[in-house]
Design brief:
The chain is of the alpha/beta class. It has 16 helices and nine strands. It has an eight-stranded parallel barrel, surrounded by six helices. Helix 6 packs parallel to helix 7 and helix 15 (296-303) runs antiparallel to helix 16.
């Protein structure tokens, strides 16, 4: 089913409003091997909403994981089965999002207070799928800074059958900080993630949070099994083009930014023909492609100019060419 082996060595984080299928298609053009994650999809959205809208993706995106938000065992099992049926390579449970909206739905980071419930959720999903069920979580919540808290959480979920943990190396503060502040204010504590790997050598432990360079990735890969990259990968996507050679042993390619942009224009045309998708909603994800290059500002302005939305993508591309 997958076009590349499922590896957690490098991955691009699930990011709400950002890592949709168009973003993932773009990222796959840059790295053949990085594991890609969907935005978080709630169980309610799948069970009571438009399933194709939430789950449709491009075959080229493999390997791709579906991140679910929820806390009801039966609902999560049903949605995990849906994810497998639609062809996803992994189901990931969100136990790290700190937003109050997510808390009201009784999922996200607040679930770290209910390890036994999360364990039941993991078991329920594993009972109905043949693909991996993984968990993304924080190192603690609010003022709980004891290593024992995250160790016991991982231990409980490991007993339930989870084998892959993606650990955002910050606490989640459930009150008083916005989601953006929760990604920046609580201090990074990589040592706790490293300790998890030492205490659970049989598990796959991946680190997330604050990593922005290939040198930092290499440093962490000496201590953990994988690194998940978020905002830096989104805003500076050309970085992904280095990953296959640097971290998967592949020969460097002759891929260029111009070739990737041309491939994205062809994708825009395909999406417009098959689904009526505007190029505008796709182009927003590639605005960092020329990050740091001369002429990047003008190029960005053209690809983000809503006044050009009625033009075919290929005509916009011609206007944007340096």
């Amino acid at each position: 089913m997958t076009s590349s082996p499922l590896s957690h060595r490098l991955s691009v984080a699930p990011m709400l409003d950002w890592t949709d299928k168009h973003c993932r298609y773009f990222h796959r053009l840059l790295s053949r091997h990085a594991l890609l994650y969907t935005e978080m999809v709630t169980t309610g959205a799948l069970l009571h909403g438009d399933v194709p809208r939430h789950l449709r993706f491009n075959a080229e995106e493999h390997a791709v994981a579906l991140q679910l938000g929820g806390s009801d065992t039966a609902d999560l099992a049903a949605c995990a089965k849906l994810g497998q049926d639609w062809g996803y390579d992994e189901i990931n449970l969100n136990c790290g999002c700190p937003s109050e909206r997510v808390q009201r739905g009784a999922f996200g980071a607040c679930l770290m207070n209910e390890a036994s419930l999360v364990g039941d959720c993991v078991r329920a999903m594993l009972d109905v799928v043949d693909i991996p069920v993984t968990v993304k979580h924080r190192i603690g919540i609010d003022k709980i800074e004891s290593y024992d808290f995250v160790r016991d959480f991982v231990g409980t979920l490991s007993d339930a059958g989870c084998r892959v943990f993606i650990v955002h190396a910050r606490n989640a503060w459930l009150k008083g900080l916005s989601p953006k502040e929760n990604r920046e204010v609580p201090p990074l504590r990589y040592d706790l993630v490293h300790q998890l790997k030492r205490d659970f050598p049989q598990l796959t432990i991946c680190l997330n949070g604050g990593v922005t360079t290939s040198a930092q990735v290499a440093e962490q890969l000496a201590l953990v099994d994988g690194v998940m990259l978020g905002r830096e990968a989104y805003h500076n996507p050309w970085w992904l083009s280095e990953w296959d050679a640097a971290f998967y042993g592949e020969q460097p390619t002759d891929r260029t930014r111009e070739l990737v942009e041309e491939q994205m224009v062809a994708y825009m045309e395909r999406e417009a023909a098959e689904h009526g998708t505007s190029w505008y909603s796709i182009a927003r994800h590639m605005l960092g492609l020329r990050h740091g290059l001369p002429g990047a500002r003008k190029w960005r302005q053209i690809w983000s100019d809503h006044r050009l939305k009625t033009l075919p993508a290929r005509e916009v591309w011609a206007l944007a060419k340096p």
